[in-house]
Amino acid sequence: DHAVCAVKKDQGWQIIDLTEKYGNIEFPGRAIQNRHVYITGKEKGIIWKVEPVEAEANQINWNLDLVQIKDRLKGSFHVKVNGMAMNQIREILAASPTGSSAGLEEYLQSFSEKLEFDSIQSQDFYTYLVISGKAKTIVNPITETQDLCYVWKNFIPYPHPFSKKVMESVQINDHTLYQTVKLSLDLDRSFSLAPEPPYTSSTSFSDFTSLIAAGNEHALNFEYTFLMKEIEFRGPGLIEYEHLNNTLNSYFKNALLLQ
What letter would DSSP give residue 94? Predict the structure, then answer.
């Protein structure tokens, strides 16, 4: 129920999906990645597989530097994207009124509803694109007692921007993604970090690893990497995808314990 354009290229074919909102020549559309297409024309009909875009060619890299000011964390952010993510940002920019950052703000908040983004700027370097600006937490993510301090992780950008609940009747196809987040927090108190080993969680199509470390006496560094390979959002793949999001949701609902 879908038609694409096939262009002869070297010993193979370049498949172009003209209905793909975020597509371009370098990247096959999301709806046709990891799919077989039937090519017919002057030559004998053939079946050709459209390979999925490698996760490393579809990266989102976050850097957040935040300082505790009273009951908020405030500072700057820097997001570097390439591949399909870059194409999505270009589409958002093209659809936005001149000078408006509303589309970019909505995109950023699809990763974190508990961060507020301001003074948003974008720079397009052709092979990658950068979004930067100011960020602050909407609510206080820090709970303090006389001896302990809890920093809740629920404001940290989520490992992917896709829907966390997928209905099998809704056609969502393969995605690949490589995302990193590096977060630096400067708190208004000295602390020691409660021992916490690197956290890892894996499925047949994803790997998540996070690491927490103390900097100077007021600084806390948190980082994670998330790799998502292609997945069929149906049957066992759908169940495993929901399990992945349940695991990630539980992880980001917990707090970092400082002493």
Answer: H
Distance CA 91, CA 78 (A): 19
For every residue of 185-248, DSSP letters joined together read EE-SS---BPP-PPEEEE-SSEEEEEEEEE-STTEEEEEEEEEE----SSTHHHHHHHHHHHHH
CB atoms within 10 A of CB 48: 14
Could you read off the pLDDT of 42-75 as tens digits, one per residue? 777 899 998 888 888 889 999 999 999 999 999 9
Pick the more confident residue, 20 or 83.
83
Q: pTM of the prediction?
A: 0.86
Q: What is the pLDDT of residues 164-211, one digit of tens each?
A: 776 554 444 556 889 999 999 999 888 888 777 899 999 988 999 999
pLDDT (0 to 100) of residue 131: 97
Q: If you count DSSP H runs as helices and E runs as strands, how many of each does the chain have, helices first?
A: 3, 15
- The alpha carbon dihedral of 39, 44, 49, 51 has a sign of negative
pLDDT score, position 189: 84
68-84: burial string, b at 16+ Cβ within 10 Å, e else: beeebbbbebebbbbbb
Residue 53 to residues 57, 150, 250: CA-CA distances in angstroms? 7, 39, 29
